[in-house]
Amino acid sequence: MKPVIVDRVILSLINKHQINTTDHFEEREDGSVYLNREGKYIVLRSFEEKLQTRLVMGGSTYTYAQLIQHDIRQFKRILQQDGDLKRFKPYKYY
């Protein structure tokens, strides 16, 4: 998963006040803080929507999900061939 996509989702949710510490997080007895059920739903729904964002590259349209799948296939193919990761050229998501 590309951190830049996740970062965009989280920052967007915070900036648009769609998620907040009062309604969407819970603190555990050990002091750790987690998303509650509603918070998880909001984050996952927004992330899934972001993965379906369409981008135009070289006259073709792709979603982030398709680009990630392409990167995974390319990485797997290189590992199965010679393992030379210098040949791995992932899409730049920024």
UniProtKB/TrEMBL annotation:
GO terms for biological process: defense response to virus; maintenance of CRISPR repeat elements. The keyword Ion transport does not apply. The keyword Kinase does not apply. Keywords: Antiviral defense, DNA-binding, Endonuclease, Hydrolase, Magnesium, Metal-binding, Nuclease. GO terms for molecular function: DNA binding; endonuclease activity; hydrolase activity; metal ion binding. It comes from the Bacteria. InterPro entries: CRISPR-assoc_Cas1, CRISPR-assoc_Cas1_C. This is CRISPR-associated endonuclease Cas1. It comes from Streptococcus oralis.
